[in-house]
TrEMBL record:
<dbReference type="Pfam" id="PF13481">
    <property type="entry name" value="AAA_25"/>
</dbReference>
<dbReference type="GO" id="GO:0016787">
    <property type="term" value="F:hydrolase activity"/>
</dbReference>
<dbReference type="Pfam" id="PF18073">
    <property type="entry name" value="Zn_ribbon_LapB"/>
</dbReference>
<dbReference type="InterPro" id="IPR003593">
    <property type="entry name" value="AAA+_ATPase"/>
</dbReference>
<dbReference type="InterPro" id="IPR020588">
    <property type="entry name" value="RecA_ATP-bd"/>
</dbReference>
<dbReference type="GO" id="GO:0005524">
    <property type="term" value="F:ATP binding"/>
</dbReference>
<keyword id="KW-0862">Zinc</keyword>
<comment type="function">
    <text>DNA-dependent ATPase involved in processing of recombination intermediates, plays a role in repairing DNA breaks. Stimulates the branch migration of RecA-mediated strand transfer reactions, allowing the 3' invading strand to extend heteroduplex DNA faster. Binds ssDNA in the presence of ADP but not other nucleotides, has ATPase activity that is stimulated by ssDNA and various branched DNA structures, but inhibited by SSB. Does not have RecA's homology-searching function.</text>
</comment>
<feature type="region of interest" description="Lon-protease-like">
    <location>
        <begin position="351"/>
        <end position="457"/>
    </location>
</feature>
<comment type="function">
    <text>Plays a role in repairing double-strand DNA breaks, probably involving stabilizing or processing branched DNA or blocked replication forks.</text>
</comment>
<keyword id="KW-0067">ATP-binding</keyword>
<keyword id="KW-0378">Hydrolase</keyword>
<dbReference type="GO" id="GO:0005829">
    <property type="term" value="C:cytosol"/>
</dbReference>
<keyword id="KW-0479">Metal-binding</keyword>
<comment type="similarity">
    <text>Belongs to the RecA family. RadA subfamily.</text>
</comment>
<keyword id="KW-0547">Nucleotide-binding</keyword>
<dbReference type="GO" id="GO:0003684">
    <property type="term" value="F:damaged DNA binding"/>
</dbReference>
């Protein structure tokens, strides 16, 4: 006799229990344990059951590639991250902190979409239609082909889609949508999963492109179940500091293009603006070189960005202080220790202050050499010329190591007018107009710093 068994599995950690529990005993998450179907067994062997397919399998070469064609949104930086635009029938999840500008960006996308002769529907569960209209007038995004609906019920929202028949739907936000066909509170794990599944099925069956706005937790992760990111086709993170107007859209997952692109924007009172060349935002423009500064080229995804590191050395007043902004504090302490041990600079007892320009965050190890040269320049009071960039990773032995994407970094430096680059050895391709000076270790880089500064003077 075949025996049917029941199992309960956690959607977060996939832990299996014999009975239903409200909280997963393995990961401790509430409301993630659901009943799963288990094949019947005969004498301990799973019974084999086949179902006739409704559509036959076809050769891969016979599938028309135009079915995944990108349609530009009209917002160039967003199209860059999406791989050229939005694919019909795709589901995109845009997550970000409150107040970072998600609604402003998507209202701009809906307006540009409508300007190209296509219809867009904006579903808001957080704001009223009057509030959205006020923002549209302030940002210049009012268009007759942009339809608004303040709705938080899923079934009613699907009715709006059937009635308006748009080609683009913006749902702001998925955590505010609820359905009567699932248990749990609005914004809970069960509700978010059910709403996303229904919207994804609608997108796949009708060919409507859907953009979902997602909330984030205090740790920066997307709120809701982890399966939410698996259900959608594209996952984007909208990042920005409230003290700065710079905003970045970072691709995390993209089934239709590269997943490591970055788009840059400037958020203003009258809307959001694309920044095609953001390198100038991270440089401190000054007529003459100043000691304690060094310029580097970092890679954010595939995009090279110019960044400036500033260092200040103060006389010791007791316990040495290390204050950093935009740079990893542990790497800054490590570089200071390498300078003292390998380059014999007595920076250990001194107070060291490090900062970047324009609110930029340098997490790439390629900025190690620029941090080291900025500290050394401040210590010996010898400025680097403004036409010099430093690229390289510093090891604990004082050696300089090559980093990935060196060709793109040097090409970006040459494009912006830099004429000299201090790099680790082994660089093969150097753009025309840029001179690369190789340094084996931090001591050799210090000699290059002295020679370049003296020659420029």
């Amino acid at each position: 006799m075949a025996k049917a068994r029941s199992q309960y599995r956690c959607s977060e950690c996939h832990h299996v229990t014999a009975k239903w529990v409200g909280r997963c005993p393995d990961c401790g998450t509430w409301g993630t344990v659901d009943e799963v179907a288990v094949l019947a067994t005969v004498n301990g062997v799973a019974a084999r059951r086949t179902v006739a397919p409704t559509t036959p399998a076809v050769p891969l070469s016979s599938i028309d590639p135009s079915t995944t064609k990108h349609f530009p949104t009209g917002v160039s930086e967003l199209d860059r991250v999406l791989g050229g635009g939005i694919v019909p029938g795709s589901v995109t999840l845009l997550a970000g902190d409150p107040g970072v500008g998600k609604s402003t960006l998507l209202l701009e996308v809906a307006s540009r979409w409508a300007e190209s002769g296509r219809r867009a529907l904006y579903l808001s569960g957080e704001e009223s239609a009057g509030q959205i209209r006020m923002r549209a007038e302030r940002t210049g995004c009012a268009h007759d082909d942009v339809f608004l609906a303040a709705e938080s019920d899923l079934q009613t929202a699907l009715g709006h889609i059937d009635e308006v028949r748009p080609t683009l739907v913006v749902v702001d936000s998925v955590q505010t949508m609820s359905t009567t066909e699932a248990d749990g509170v609005t914004g809970g794990v069960t509700q978010v999963r059910a709403v996303t599944t229904a919207l994804t099925m609608t997108a796949k069956t009708t060919g409507v492109a859907i953009i979902l706005v997602g909330h984030v937790t205090k740790d920066g992760a997307i709120a809701g179940p982890r399966s939410l990111e698996h259900l959608v086709d594209v996952v984007l993170h909208f990042e920005g500091d409230k003290t700065s107007s710079l905003r970045m859209v970072r691709g995390v997952k993209n089934r239709f293009g590269a997943a490591d692109e970055v788009g840059c924007f400037m958020l203003h009172d009258n809307g959001i603006e694309c920044v095609a060349d953001p390198s100038g935002l991270f440089l401190d423009q000054r007529p003459a070189p100043v000691s304690g500064t060094a310029v580097t080229v970092t890679l954010d995804g595939k995009r090279p960005l110019i960044g400036e590191v500033q260092a200040l050395i103060a006389a010791p007043t007791g316990t040495p202080r290390r204050a950093v902004s935009g740079i990893d504090s542990s790497r800054a302490a490590m570089i200071a220790a390498v300078l003292e041990k390998r380059a014999h600079l007595r920076v250990g007892p001194c107070d060291i202050y490090l900062s970047t320009v324009g609110g930029m965050r340098l997490t790439d190890p390629s900025s190690d050499l620029a941090v080291a040269l900025a500290i050394a320049s401040a210590y010996v009071d010898l400025p680097l010329p403004t036409t010099v960039v430093a690229i390289g990773e510093v090891g604990l032995a004082g050696d300089l190591r090559r980093v990935s994407g060196m060709e793109r970094r040097l090409a970006e430096a040459a494009r912006l007018g830099f004429t000299c680059a201090i790099v680790p050895p082994g660089v093969q391709t150097v753009p025309i107009g840029l001179r690369a000076i190789a340094a084996d270790n931090i001591t050799a880089a210090m000699r290059v710093l002295r020679d370049v500064s003296n020659n420029s003077g």
